[in-house]
Structures are given as structure tokens and as C-alpha cells.
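User: Assemble these into one structure.

Assistant: Restating your components, then the assembled model:
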Amino acid sequence: MDEIFRGMTFGSIYSLLAVGLVLTYKTSGIFNLAYGAQAFVSAAVYYEMRKVHELPIPVAFTIAVLIAAPLLGLLLDRLLFRHLRSAPAVARLVTTLGLLVAIPEITKLFFAVNTSYQPPGVVPDGSSAYNPFGNVFLNRDDIATIVITIAVVLAIMAMFRYSPLGLRMRAVVESNRMTELAGVDADRVSTIAAVMSSMLAGLAGVLISPVLPQLNDLYYRNLVVAAIAAAVFAGLSSIPLAFIGGLLLGILSQVLATLLPDGSVFKASLGPSLPFVALFVVLIVMNARGGTREVADPLAGVDPPPPPLVSVERTDSLTWATRSFGVIFVLGLCYWLLFHADEQIWFPPAQEAAIYAVIFLSITVITGMGGLISLSQATFAGIGALATAQLATDAGLGVLFAAVVGAAIAAAVGALLAVPALRLAGIFLSLATLAFGLFFDSVMVKYTWVSGGDGIQPHATPRPTIGPIDFANEKAFLLLCIVILALVGTAVIFIRSGTTGRYLDAIRGSQTAASSIGISSARSRVVVFALSAGIAGLGGGLFAMYQERANFVGNFKVELGLVWVVVVVTLGARTVEGAIQAAIGFVFFQRFALRVWIPWAVNHAQPWVDVKPITGGVATVLFGLGALTYARHPEGILEFNKRKSLAAIQRRIDRRKQSPPDEGAVVVGEVGA
Amino acid sequence: MSLLQADGVTKKFSGITALDAVSLDVDDGEIVGLIGPNGAGKTTFFNCLLGMLKPDSGSVTFDGVDLARVPTHRRARLGIGRTFQRIELFTGMSPREHFLVADRAHTRRGSLLFDIFGFGRPHADEQARAAAVLDILGLTPVADRQVESLSLGIGRLVEVGRALMTNPRLLLLDEPSSGLDRKETEALAMTLREVQRQSGTAILLVEHDVDFVRSLVTRAFVLDFGTLIASGRTDDVFADAAVRKAYLGDIV
């Protein structure tokens, strides 16, 4: 009995969040991964008002839930969601990913949340307990949470069923565009829904905070993972089912926690892993029951297909010119780097960039070629790093060989993950990979056979040697990284133009037609997952060599992987040079632009403010915000600029054809092919 | 023994019987028509043949192999090609690329390892085969345009070509003439006869354009509301009173 009531507290929060998720998804087609971050914002505001400014409860509650949360919802809707509604599914996912990454970091810039212990609740003396029947103990916070949740969910259900606004919302759910044809302002309806769901997030965030030991965005992220499981349980469409799913999940976790024997491994890992396991299981089960179809707009076919790559469209001579320019530029850069650059300053970032480029190529493979968004690429890289470290140090294999084996292990894990997720489409697949990554982070990495330790203490990794060449020498290691990058990049280009790449293109074009000529999309998907995981694993192994230790927590947590996906997709996931430039940008932006260049420029421009080197979350915020451009340039910034410069060059050529040719004019194309 | 043999195929959609014990056979190298008014269950029957739907009862054998447990893509490898009523093309690819990828899928040459070392690009013999089919279908002038920019009629030809590239022993055509004008339909009929003469592929044709069917097929099966109401030589079938009633209503 006691467990059931206690489970209802958490269950209520899951329910509120799940209902909010379903509400946004139904009215705008956007699955808001940043939903937990929104809850976190309100919780932080409430904490600040109560603990720091010591305002009375009603005032603080009004500010946090009735003012801050709706404002945030309105802001997000006006600036982003509104423009995303007709954007491709990938754009919607990447944008909310960007928010997931950026919002907590922005919040932390304003509130000292990491020192905020014992957040207060919404009722006075929240922790005083009651004992209504038998051995059931409930405190006032729990009761408030449960009562408020039930009231709010009932109100929302009533609104959907009986009010004119509810009717319009249900129409928008059926087809955004058709509803507009019928004279309803779908944008306005979606805005209201966004504001409402933002308030729900704020309410949930404030209600749950007294139960949490500390205000920390990670708790909120885990809460929202459980809420996502409940939302998927409801097929992303039924509000009552989302409510029930959330409650069930909360109760289930409490009951399991009491039933399992104390001290068992299962129990130790249950608490942190349950949301992720639940999400994964619910995704697979719901899919088998056919409940995971994405909202399909009957008029969605109006969207034009993605344009072909610029390199396909331009003329042979222009392609030749840009390619030779690119080759000369890259060779020149390598020459300068290896023989003229200052080792201390340039070698570490160059090595890092080359290694990140290898890892990012795994995103090129799975997202650019396969059309799938995997959110566990960091986990695959981490598996490669951990395997390399253990095989090289404990099993005594050669380090390079160990990295290859590590890549193979990562590939095998990727293939294994792909098998249950075979039939998952779009957002559901991304959620499954997210669940897997979070599960690995919070549970698997603690096993000694996985991490070679406790998962926190990094495992030492030696640098490789080949014959007389010792790669402990930084220049030799840089060269090694560049060579491996070149090999992997070439392989990716070959794969794209070979059987695998064309099968994947065909499947993206029409899965039905692909199967009608004998292409197995299941097999192709397993292959692309394994390949991508393998490349990420190889990059992870290299990273361990670079740092001379496999630092999983520092480098391969899921959150970091989200940033990678965001950066690569923002710059261009379809081309190899997109991945390479994303890596260069990723490394140099953090190492130089924020730490040195920007402070230097600002400090030289004016004498009043002294800008310190910028570190930490700011870079993440900027990368996250960068993803927001994706809604406007779904092919990536690089392709967008290429198309622009191609058009400019074409215009110039056309003009020259009309007028007599002027000697010596040089056409400079952009780098790469 | 026939190439394709369907026995008592029944399919129900939540109470509605879409197909009621439909039996049909196609011999090697023969063109057979499956006709019937809209909603008769023709496309459902096709999907049952291809494994995109699972029949509730009845069996389908192809070349002596029971297809019950064979997934769709393996049926294609056994030698059943098909086109779609609502055309399903690979967006972003040109007709030539369609044919090349279909050829690869048929020969099953190449693998990931093959690709990694750069041996995955189209070979000369594959290019030649694709060029030959482009030529037969008269698609050479548009071979390298993206399919989205091509007309519906050309799109249907691309589908036929893509199916032919897998060298099928049986080609299932799902209303190839719908959306085409008279001239295009006639050209398509001619092309199909030519293809059939050259490759000896058996064709099962789902249509409701009577003239088009009569000009091509030797035997016909007629479906109405999920039941087979007539079968036999084309002329006999079209002379059948029940068929005329189902098809032409009370006009005759």
C-alpha cells in the first residue's frame, strides 16, 4: 500500500509531463525533448523566489508557474516551434535537441542551482507526514502533488472534449494544413497549446522539487525520460492514457524497488535505470502493437523532397576546379601544420579535431546516408575507447589493433541495438537510442567488465608504436590521426557511392519499392547502425590514445553526443567535409574563439569591461542555438552556402559568355567536393 | 505446373471480406489480366501475392515454392517483380540510378567490404544492362533527370524498367495505365508486348481499362467484391453476362 501511494507522487509528475508532451506533439507535431529543461527553469525560478528572495508561497508560485513558464512557452513558440511545424522531422528533432542542450546551461548562468539543496514545496510544512490509513505515510507535499495533478489533468480532458478551443485543437491534430483551409488559425491554436504545456512543465517542475535532494537539470532530464515513456505508452496521442501511463510507471518503480531483494545488483541499478529501460521496452512493445505511427498529415505530401547535393548539380569543370582547389588547400594546411606550426599551440587541437572528425563521420553515415538520427553516438565512441584501453593495458594487445577490435565491439553493440529497434521510425528510433545511451551511462559503465574500473576513474591507454615510429611523439601522432581520418573519409565516400549507399538512398526514397526489388531494409539498417557505431568506436579508441586514458565521463556522456549531432547536422550531415568542418569548428570554437579570440577582441575594442576567457556551458549554449538555424537550412549551413556560391559563379560564367572573355579572371570555388 | 498458383486466398479487414477464396494461376511467359471495378480487391490480392499483406487463409506458390513464410524482399529475389498503382519511385534518383540499384539488388553483387575499398561503383556491364532497358522503354533522353521532375507516364515506365532490371519471371503490373492519356497507354501496351516478346517474362496485369487489357492478355480473371466471378480466355470472359453486369452496369 505504502509503495503505491509513494509511487503516485512520482507518477503524478510523470503524468503531468507526459500529458504536456502529448499536447505539444498533437497540436504541432513537435516532440519536445527540451521539456524537462522547461520544468527545470520553473523549478529554478521558484527556488530563487522562495529561498533567496523569501517571497510568500502564492507570489513565488505565481511568478514561477503562471508567469515565467507561459512566457517561456510563448517565446519558444514564437521564435521556433511556429516555424518548425512544416519543417522536416529531422529539423524538428534537432531543434528541440538544441534547446535541451542550451536551456539548462542558460538557466545555470543565472541561478546558482548546483548549490541549491532541499528545494521547498508549494504547501507550508511540506514534509510533515500524515498517516491516514494503516501503515501509509504521506507528507503534505505528496498530497499536494497528487491532488493538483488529478485536478489539472481532469480539467484538460474536459477542455478537450467540451470547449470550442478543444475542438479546434483536435482538428489541428488531424491535419494542421486542412484545419487552416477550414478557416481556423492553426498557429494560434498551437501557440495556446505550447503555452499550456509549458505551464504544465512548470507546474510539474515546481511540484517535484521538494522530493529531489537538489535542483539539478539531470534529475529533470531523467524525469522527462520517464514521462516520454508514458507518452509513448499513450501512442503520443491519448491524454488519458498518458496520465495512466505516468501513474503506472511511478507505482511500478516503487513496487519493484521494495520487492527486489536488498543489495542485489538488480536493485542497485534499478533506481537510476528504470526510466531508460521503461522507455526502451515501451517503444519496442508499442511498436509491435502498431501504436508508434508518427502523426501523418494527409497534406504532408506537399513537402518537396530534399534537393540533390550541389556537387551533383554543378558542371564537371567546376567540380574539377573546386576539388583541385580543395586538395591544394588541405595539403597546404597539413604541410604548414606539420612543419611550421608551433607544436604547443596547434598540435593538440589539430589532433583533437582530426579525431572528432572521425567520430563525426559516424554521424554522416547514420544521419546523412541512412536518414536516421541516433542519439547514442557518444556511447558507441565511449565503448570503443573503453575497449581499446582495456585490451591494450590489461590484455596486452597492440594499441592500434586494440582500437580496431574496439571498433568491432562498438559495431557489434550497434548492430544489437538496431535489431530490436528495426521497425521504429523517425522520432521513436531516436528516443530508443537516447534510452540506450542513458542506460549505458547510468548503469553499464559501472560494471568493471565494461569500463575496467568504476566507470569514473579513467583507464590508462598507451600511445601506439609501429616499428621505429613511436606515436608518443606529437607530430607522429598528429600524422596518424590525419591518415586515419583520410582513410575513414575515403571509405565513407566509397560506401556512399557503392551498393550500401545506394540501397540506403533507395530505402529513403521508398521502402515499399525497395523491398519490391529485393532490398531488405532490415538488413540495410543493421548494416548502417553497425558501420556508424564502428566508426564512432574507432574514433573513441583514437581519443583514448590521444588523452592516454579512456575518460568516459569526461568525453562520452550522452549529453556530449547530443552536442555532436547538433553540430554535425547544423553544418551538413550529408558530406564528408561537413563532418570535418564540424569537427574543426567544434574544437577551435571552444579552444580559441571563446577562450582567447573573443575576449581579446572585446578587451581591445573598449577599456571598460574586462572579459575573461569564456569556458564551460556557454559553448554548449551557442552550439544548441546554432541548431536553430537548421529549421531554415535543413541541408546544413555548408550546403546552403555552396549552393549560394555555385549560383554566384554560374551567374558570373553566364555573364562572361555574353561579353568577350576577360583574361586572367580566376574563379575560386569553395573547398571540397 | 503453373509459375504462379494462388489457391483460395482470403483476406478480411475487420469483418469486411476483401478477398473471398480467390484462386488464380499464371503460366510461364503468359500475359494474364486481373480485372474488376474499383474496390474489387485487385490491389489487396496483389499485396497478398507480394507478402505486403498476410492472407487469412489460402496459399500462394511460386515456381513450386510455398510463399507463406517468405518475406517481401525474398519474393522479389525469387523472381517476382512489381509496379505500384500509386507510383513508388526513389525520390532524388534518376531513372538510370533506379535501374542500377535494381540491378545490384538482383545480382546481389557487392557488400560493405566491397564498398569500403571503392569497388562499389557501377561496373561497365551493369551500365550496359541499364542502358539497354532505358533504350527498350525509350527513357534514354531522360535517363539522368531526377524522377521528381518527370511526368506520371514516364514514372510508370521507370517502375516497369526497375522491375525488369531484376530479371523477373513474373511481372505484376498494378494499373499501369491509370493516369495516362490514350496515346501514352497505347505506347505502354506496345512496350509491354515488346518486353514480353524479348524476355519471355510472364505478366499479371491488374487493370480496369478494358481496351488496354483486351489488347494485351490471352486469359483474364474477373474480381467483383472480392469474389472471382469469371475466368478463362479473354474473349469468353468479356462475353460473360455476369462480367458485363459487374463491369458495365445496366448499359448493355
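The CA atoms of residues 463 and 545 of chain A lie 5 Å apart.
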